[in-house]
Predict the structure.
Amino acid sequence: MHDGFLGAVLDALGDYHRALGVDTDEATVALGLPVGVGTQDGADGRLAGAVVEAPLDASDPAARVGAMRELVLSTASGPRRADVQVASLPGIGHPVYLAGSRITRLFPLGPLTECAATITLVGHDGTGCVGIVLDDAAVTEPTLLVEGIRAGLARVVALAPS
């Protein structure tokens, strides 16, 4: 799920920049990602932040998802600033209730830490819920980006066998 989500977000960021007139053939974006740190590092399985330079070119969605997998596997943590923070969380895979009412959606809102956007996916009872936090000074056309994320997710979902 994580690679597909990253591919969809990258697709949306490329579309967003192209719509604003940016040539994305050679452009990249610095994506901030949470990565697992193993017990061998003395971190007891906790998360650390990492940044990868991801291409914004208009490659096809299947190639983009595969490329994201390779980027994530080659990621090393370090002190670097990201343009966009992206994360996916496993969430809860069964129905849950609060005060007798079923919770049907759960939207994660990650912190905006000196970057243009934080885009987070959490799975909840079979549904993927996306939370988006934007810096309005950096993302001047928020509707364009949100629609791009919807379209990117639809393209990635269409890759799944029927």
